[in-house]
Structures are given as structure tokens and as C-alpha cells.
Amino acid sequence: MDGDWEAPLIPNPLCESAPGCGPWKPPQINNPNYKGKWHAPLIDNPNYKGKWKPRRIPNPDFFEDKNPFRMTDIVSIESHQFDTNCLLSLQYIYWQTVAMYW
Q: Which domain holds residue 95?
């Protein structure tokens, strides 16, 4: 009942034995000019200088932390999410850390 309506198929008794009746199939003829799947031709690029890589320049302000595990304790947490459950849990964590370090 619901959905797209399709007309009922009525068989044609005159078409059962006639040539050319039945499902239509497109004719297939050979193409003598067909040379296979087409690919874009590759041409030389005179400006090609090899695979790209970034230049290495000196950085006088570079700092490498040799001991990243030596850091101070985390005393507070800041969050900018406006979720009531998240906000209540963060307030609980905050007051626990305040009570622990105060």
C-alpha cells in the first residue's frame, strides 16, 4: 500500500516467439581505435629539484628538557566546558586539592 506505485506487468502473447522481444541490451561493437585505459602523459619538469624537505636553520632559543619528569605538583585544574556534571566534578576535585595542600 505505502511506497512508490508501479504499474503491473502484462505479458504480451505476440512477443513470446517474435525476434527482438525481451529485455533490451545495448549493442556491443568493437572500437578499432581503443588503446586501453587512458593515463595522463608524463612530461619532464625542468624546475624539479628533488623531493621537498624543509630547510634546516639554527634556532638560538631552542630548549630541550632533559628531565621532563621532574616537575612541580599540579595544584589546580581549569576548564572552559559548560556542562553541569563536568563542572560539579571539577569543583569537587578543586576542593579536594585545596583541602590537601592548604
A: 76-102
